[in-house]
């Protein structure tokens, strides 16, 4: 039987995820966690490339694939066969949304581009994620997160300072943000469809997803005509606002306001800082940042991180430790916000995953269902589309679809 989420604001919405690797699957995951019935269509043969992104793995199953594709149903279809294309067209005819992130022109060659699918389902919201968008001089280029980080300016802003090698953000921020933008755009278009009955084409890219993280540097460039340079963990328009070494690690301290700066000096038990003209205002502190950091670091190194965090918290100063990934996953606040969920996988067993980052008073659509095995729900979905048992068997014999024998 189908294990469709019964709660969530998107309950009853069907999403066809013709996407692979990360950006598209992130968009599908967010919608699944908000209650949508997301059907992931994987290529035959092989499936999503992240199935082979190992290590790490759990009982032979890719951890990368499982964390991005939980809460979805999965079918395997050979899109190079007319029968496989027909399966997808029939599926789209009963869907509300399509999310895909193939290279520009790929879906059109298979007869599955927006123009073709819009003829089948005029109310369809079709979202395409590419490296650089569907217009402009780079429209035909393939794109990866690394490339988008470099071309968006992010790598020119990240690192220890001028003259050092460029550094990418430690996570695929372009991919993840593109998925978030895709889900946002889809929901906006879906709301309009509720008013007009018409679907539309939604277009975003890794370049734009990376670029939107540069609001502050872009504002500076617009205003001054100059490009900001890497500053480590420091802030381009506020000081102190960065990571400082402690006795046993690192702590982030932020003084966006003058009031916070005054509280910091009190916590450090250095009232003389408030009388020092070099640090009297944010502009002065920016001009003498190196000296300020040296003075603060010498004091902060005398106590452990947690002791400082508690002291700053009592004073009302925003501060927090710099944690490792395992420390974050054990954090009580992260757990309290249901950001760690347990899902059941047919092979890997009970698997931990990241939860939905948006909370709803009426409940989300998060279930205990793990990522699908390759072709796990092919038979189930085809039956829902009206394919009789002999038809499903014939499609499998033609290698137009693959239906796993493991029970859903």
Give the number of domains: 2
Spatial strand order of the main sheet: 8-7-6-1-2-5-14
What percentage of the residues does DSSP assign to strands (E)? 15-25%
User: How many strands appear in the DSSP assignment?
Assistant: 14
Structure explained in plain terms:
There is one protein chain. With 408 residues, the protein is an alpha/beta fold. It has two domains: 14-212 and 336-402, Rossmann fold (3-Layer(aba) Sandwich), CATH 3.40.50.10540; 250-321, formyl-coa transferase, domain 3 (2-Layer Sandwich). The chain contains 19 helices and 14 strands. The protein has helices spanning 23-33, 63-69, 82-93, 106-109, 114-120, 145-151, 154-157, 173-196, 206-211, 215-224, 258-267, 272-275, 282-287, 289-300, 305-315, 325-329, 332-336, 378-384, 389-397; strands at residues 14-18, 37-43, 57-58, 61-62, 73-77, 97-100, 125-130, 201-205, 241-245, 250-254, 319-321, 340-345, 349-354, 401-402. Strands 8-7-6-1-2-5-14 form a seven-stranded mixed β-sheet, with helices on both faces. The protein has a three-stranded antiparallel β-sheet with strand order 9-10-11, covered by helices on one side. The chain has a two-stranded antiparallel ribbon with strand order 3-4. Helix 1 (23-33) packs across helix 8. The longest helix has 24 residues, at 173-196. The chain starts with 13 loop residues before the first strand and ends in a 6-residue tail after the last strand.
